[in-house]
Amino acid sequence: MNRRKKIKQLLTAHAKKASAKLAPKSKPRYISKADRAKLEAEASQAPETPQES
């Protein structure tokens, strides 16, 4: 590997790491369809208390 290529490779690697730091965090964790249905069923079974204003 010649010197120019090696330097370019290092610079691109550093740039890639820097842009990864600035990028937004990863998307929220995936919840399966069955788990979503289960959570929805639990929420509908929970007694809903009316809010007083």
Structural notes for this entry:
The protein is 62% helix and 0% strand. With 53 residues, it is mainly alpha-helical. The longest helix is centred in the first third of the chain and has 20 residues. The protein is rod-shaped, with a radius of gyration of 25 Å.
Could you outline the blueprint of secondary structure elements for this entry?
Blueprint: H1 3-22, H2 33-45
In short:
This protein has 53 residues and is mainly alpha-helical.
**Which shape, going by the Cα principal axes?**
rod-shaped
User: What portion of residues belong to β-strands?
Assistant: under 5%
What is the total tally of β strands? Answer: 0
Helix content: 55-70%
Index terms:
53 residues, mainly alpha, 2 helices
